[in-house]
Amino acid sequence: xxxxxxxxxxxxxxxxxxxxxxxxxxxxxxxxxxxxxxxxxxxxxxxxxxxxxxxxxxxxxxxxxxxxxxxxxxxxxxxxxxxxxxxxxxxxxxxxxxxxxxxxxxxxxxxxxxxxxxxxxxxxxxxxxxxxxxxxxxxxxxxxxxxxxxxxxxxxxxxxxxxxxxxxxxxxxxxxxxxxxxxxxxxxxxxxxxxxxxxxxxxxxxxxxxxxxxxxxxxxxxxxxxxxxxxxxxxxxxxxxxxxxxxxxxxxxxxxxxxxxxxxxxxxxxxxxxxxxxxxxxxxxxxxxxxxxxxxxxxxxxxx
Amino acid sequence: xxxxxxxxxxxxxxxxxxxxxxxxxxxxxxxxxxxxxxxxxxxxxxxxxxxxxxxxxxxxxxxxxxxxxxxxxxxxxxxxxxxxxxxxxxxxxxxxxxxxxxxxxxxxxxxxxxxxxxxxxxxxxxxxxxxxxxxxxxxxxxxxxxxxxxxxxxxxxxxxxxxxxxxxxxxxxxxxxxxxxxxxxxxxxxxxxxxxxxxxxxxxxxxxxxxxxxxxxxxxxxxxxxxxxxxxxxxxxxxxxxxxxxxxxxxxx
Lengths: 304, 253
Known about the structure:
The complex is a heterodimer. Chain A is of the alpha/beta class.
């Protein structure tokens, strides 16, 4: 099975000398939601802009559904929908007309029915005959998504789709993306909200200073790089603890005993630890487990 | 060919024209009326006929040229500059449409509008004078060809410009002076020898002369050199646009 996106040895430097992307290798599978996480200026937008034809690459090869984005740019681009980070719309156009424009631009025969279905799914149908300038910021962003979908793309690129969007709308958008995924659309989004990647992405890439540092499924990323903390509340505070526990990574504060585990080792170690506690007759009344979330993993990686 | 894409751009640009109908159509009509009142009736009545043509009739081709040169440039330069300014250019750059097709859409929309405005001026003039067109076929050909050429030129300006001021720069400081000095309101033959010779370096002279020829069968310079000048300028514009797209100049980093 061909991947939706294949990127090999991609490099990009801007004329001002800024090396925005350093040897990026990345694949996105058909039908998955891929989230590219990274701080501001990491190269996320540059990567999307290159794939979509807005910025030129210096080196490397990019295929979209097996089509080279330079040699077969027309075929490749007709499969791509793009929503840039900044809201940019033709203020005086009516919503429905801007969609018709987008569909025509991508060489698709007109289809009022299809465009109306998009407007309905993005809760814009009521506004179809309104000028874009009369809409709220959130609606404008949805108009941009509708434009990107107007030509029935097979892969949708969203550059920070939820930056500056309120919680309610963000959740709506996530739902829209999940629906698109159900319909077989591959989704590539960039974000600096870890929560977003954690909620909706199948796989996650982390990019920093133009380098792709990690790429994995969400589960594997947490397992590989995540940590667990076992917090044991003791019946009575302890000042010292038996030397037998020196093999563990722990911290003792009054009646709170904290053990730190890497994800990989936790299964057998937790039961061993509980056995050891019972053997040493250390009574406890409560056990809590704290998992590191993606945010902490992300910060850890960036700090390295 | 992405015909639907070209048509989408064409339609978008024409919709913009009709949205701003007052500015697009009414303003050239008003200025034509003013020119007729000032140069046609007030001053023109005291000017002798030129080559057997009354002064008010004589200025009609020049008046149309003056407007369509400026309209062609401003329509297409604004057409391509505004998406750059507002950011909506992203969609055109990411669409499966070739640079040639993009240019085609913008330039033909700008040229259509110019031809339309040219005809509106002609109709307005007919309320003041009796219009005689000696070579109607060539009049239309010239109108279309000059509109396309200057729309291409405007398109180049629109790509080159990175602020609104630059869009105005060439029309205000190059095209308008050259048009006024290019025989819009006088015959080059009325100038002293020295200035006549200088005028032959003004490309606009060839356009106005040819256009006036299509009306009154009488030209300041030979009609062949006029056609040569128009085609030459058209080719230069096409070459520059091809270079721009091949290098991504001012469009893609």
